Amino acid sequence: MIIDKLQNAKLYYFGSAWERAFEFLNSLTPDTLEGKYVIDGEDIFAIIMSYETTVADEKIFESHREYVDIQSVIVGSERFECDFADALEVETPYDTLKEAAFYRRNIQGRVIVDIYPETFLMLYPNDAHLAGVMIGDSSKSVKKVVVKIRKSLLEC
């Protein structure tokens, strides 16, 4: 897991796929339309969505195998809970079509991160995460982006 400002993405070198993802992220504005954006076929793509944040108890953890997530908020803010996937109780085993496994939220995540515009959270396949949690006592509207990069494209 990496948590940082978008402007610091160049401090991490994972190759050209990483650079392309952040070129896309840095091009976004609050007016960018929701939907799927193809950056490089099914190897690198983004999904922009809007929703209302909610309480963590209504959420479940998820993890992925084939893709790394880079999540960033365009408008608003949201809380993430993260934990090790192998430390959680599986609710729905990995599904190749959904490219995800889902886990019960029996415990609060070991890491809690609040994400605001101009920040990002990079999640590796072993990082189970739960997003869309409200910060404070009231729900807020969020517009966010999830960039998916096929993990085999990242240079380490």
Fold and architecture overview:
- The protein is mainly β and 156 residues long.
- It has a single domain (2-151), classed as Jelly Rolls, CATH 2.60.120.
- It contains 1 helix and 12 strands.
- The chain has one helix at 16-27; strands at 2-5, 35-40, 44-52, 61-63, 67-75, 78-84, 90-95, 100-103, 111-115, 119-123, 127-133, 141-150.
- A hairpin with a 3-residue loop joins strand 2 and strand 3 (44-52).
- The radius of gyration is 15 Å and the shape is globular.
List keywords for this structure.
single chain; about 160 residues; mainly beta; Jelly Rolls; three-stranded antiparallel beta sheet; 1 helix; about 10% helix; about 50% strand
**Number of individual domains:** 1
Structural class: mainly beta
**CATH homologous superfamily assignment:** YhcH/YjgK/YiaL
The counted number of beta strands is 12
Strand order of the largest sheet: 1-10-5-12-3-2
Reported for the largest beta sheet, the result is: 6 strands, antiparallel
CATH architecture: Sandwich
CATH class: Mainly Beta
The backbone outline, from C-alpha atoms, is globular
Write a brief structural summary.
This protein is mostly beta strands and 156 residues long. It has one helix spanning 16-27; strands at residues 2-5, 35-40, 44-52, 61-63, 67-75, 78-84, 90-95, 100-103, 111-115, 119-123, 127-133, 141-150.
